[in-house]
Design a protein that fits this description.
heterodimer, A: 261 residues, alpha/beta, nine-stranded mixed β-sheet, 6 helices, 28% helix, B: 321 residues, seven-stranded parallel β-sheet, 9 helices, 18 strands, 29% helix, 29% strand, binds flavin-adenine dinucleotide, binds adenosine monophosphate
Chain lengths: 261, 321
Amino acid sequence: MNSLVAIAYVPDTESKIKVGPDGSSIDESDVKWIVSPYDEYGLEEALKIRESKGAGTVTVVSVGPERVKTGLRECLARGADDAVWVDTGETKNLDALGVSKALAAVAKAATFDFFWFGQKGVGPDESLVGPMTAELLGLPHVANVVHLDVGEGKVTASREIEGAHEIVECSLPAILTAQKGLNEPRYASLKGIMGAKKKPIAEKKLADLDVPEADPAAAKARWRKLSLPAPRQAVKLIPADDPAAAAKELVRLLREEAKVI
Amino acid sequence: MKFLVFIEQRDGKVRKASLEALSLARRLAGGPVAAVLAGQGVGGLVKDLGRHGAGVVYVADRAELALYSSQGYVGALDAAARKESPGAVLVAATSMGKDVAPRFAARHDSGVLADVMDLHLEGDRLVGSRPVYSGKARAEVDCGASPIQIATTRPNVFPAEAQEAAEPRVEALEPFEVSPRARVVRVEASETKEIDVAEADVIVSGGRGIKGPENWPMVRDLQEALGAALGASRAVVDAGWIDHQHQVGQTGKVVSPTLYVAAGISGAIQHLAGMGTSKVIVALNKDPEAPIFQVATYGIVGDIFQTVPELAKAVRAAKAE
Ligand SMILES: Cc1cc2nc3c(=O)[nH]c(=O)nc-3n(C[C@H](O)[C@H](O)[C@H](O)COP(=O)(O)OP(=O)(O)OC[C@H]3O[C@@H](n4cnc5c(N)ncnc54)[C@H](O)[C@@H]3O)c2cc1C
Ligand SMILES: Nc1ncnc2c1ncn2[C@@H]1O[C@H](COP(=O)(O)O)[C@@H](O)[C@H]1O
């Protein structure tokens, strides 16, 4: 069974965030980039399916500037067979619908049973691209998948919702978005890292795909301004020599000052 | 501008987050708005929607919609949009709303202002704002060239306001596709019927400082005293002390309660990413250098095996007054 896996290459959560000169996106100069953590679950599940069926391919796809190739190489090192890089060229800050259109264009040229996404791309945290791509391709999707059973031409997926799990039956091909709990992603082996250098990365230009959102004037979602949040007020520390008195004082503050209980 | 609000119901109950979105739409529109409701046997819910701002409710009431399916529920929203021609669509950013909104948006060649914590109008343009990059920055966003402006609203942030109102007009929908290729065959509720952290107004969370799963009862006692939901750090989820459902943070849930109590949690950036927007944060930790104190409103530096039980006692005493 063949899988496509969408890979967002995002700032490491430990990175310091600074506002860039345009005032609406981050300053990328000191950022360390990582494969978005949820995408690792999608990749791992695709690899597991390929292994359990003993056949099929895993293709990783990323839309972005040159640097995303490093993320794709990492995925190849972990076991993906090949990769597609959609080069965004001069386009910056492509919106979710634009990314979805680019990914849908790649998918249309491929034969696949699964197209994996992360439940969200860490950083902007929008959780949009998976379901949007599904709609553009006219495919069913299951989001927030924490368990998957693969059957003949269909899957049964468990999806996490508030206080419960929905058990979803879904025909293939399908789009699935991976949630934590689905699996434990593997690390790349040394052999994998060496082998990855020889694996192919196909290149496509965003400009050659039908993505009107590449033009900022046609974007369907815009970051108008990025700002750093005002620092929170300094903590009010309650002396703890007498825990009972401290607890009482805290409850008084929560009631009378903060008015939250 | 005309607003249409997607209403989520499960088991015949309207989700509070949907009433929040509906009230918000009424405030922005300056009067009653349209709502769409899908499910089976849901007609009885219409009146409450009227109180929260619906002037008209499009109802898709069919056996095939008893359980959620993205195709069926997006179909209902889409059918309502065809009748109403809204300029803006609001959806609560619950697991269902986050599933419905992007599909609907792509169908209408539109973007989504995802999970906003603030939403206002500049003329006819919706402007939202939301924390990004683990809460280290805030983005102000709009819908650019979208033909329909769509936003999902973070639960627990916007007030749900009930007012006496005339009963809304009910309209049926034109037929739409409901034979889904992805359909929910059953729902498995967690062992206990607990309030989910994502929707809770008060959360008490435990971290590695609780030492072991045998000490949950101590945390639970405070949780119950406060009528709160139980949260957890990733460290204790990974250790298998509690289910991932409870995890707050980057790889858990993003929450915005009125009160968040962190017991024995250091406050790593990935944890803050999930709870940094809480209105009031209480830190209970023995280490005065723990980063949680940098975001906390109130803190007690001390042993949680003393502070947590005392706090439960004090809360009960205060509530009994
Ligand atoms: C990609 C990625 C994603 C992540 N996602 C998440 C996420 O979603 N959520 C999350 O929480 N973490 C997440 N983490 C993990 C995060 O970095 C921290 O490791 C984790 O939050 C630590 O959990 P903790 O605070 O419970 O444990 P610790 O950091 O070990 O802190 C325990 C705290 O308890 C205090 N303590 C101990 N004993 C007592 C006592 N008797 N009385 C009072 N205080 C006591 C200690 O002083 C300490 O501050 C993620 C990490 C990565 C790399
Ligand atoms: N630029 C991108 N290239 C490839 N995949 C992406 C990109 N952006 C987002 N995705 C995929 O879509 C998922 C959800 O992202 P988001 O909608 O941004 O939260 C991510 O986990 C990725 O799988």
